[in-house]
Amino acid sequence: MDDKANRPKKGDGERKDRLAEALRANLQRRKAQARSRRVGDAGNHHARDPDDRPEGLPAAGKMHKD
Predict the structure, then answer these.
(1) How far apart are CA 38 and CA 43, in angstroms?
(2) Among candidate residues 56, 39, 57, the one with its CA nearest the CA of residue 48
(3) Are the beta carbons of 24 and 35 closer than 8 angstroms?
(4) Which of 53, 28, 29, 27 is nearest to 40 (CA)?
(5) What is the DSSP letter of 66?
(6) What torsion do the CA atoms of 41, 42, 44, 47 make, to the nearest 10 degrees?
(7) What percent of the residues of the chain are helix, what percent strand, and what percent coil, each to the nearest 5?
(8) Which of 3, 13, 22, 55 has its CA 20 to 30 A from that of 64?
(9) pLDDT tens digits, residue range 57-66?
C-alpha cells in the first residue's frame, strides 16, 4: 500500500476541531428545541416544569379481553 494515502493532512486537526464545534452547537440547538416543545405542551396539560416529566412512553397496563 502507499503510505502517503494514510498520512494526516496539514489542516486535518483544524478540520476536526471545526467539526467538533459544529456538532456541539447542533446538539445545543436540538436540546433547546426539545425543551421549547415541552414548554409548549405544558400549556395543554397542567403547569409543571417540563424537565421533570419522565422520558418516553408510559408502560402499558393489563390487556383486556373482549
Answers:
(1) 9
(2) 39
(3) no
(4) 53
(5) -
(6) 180
(7) 55, 0, 45
(8) 55
(9) 666 667 666 6
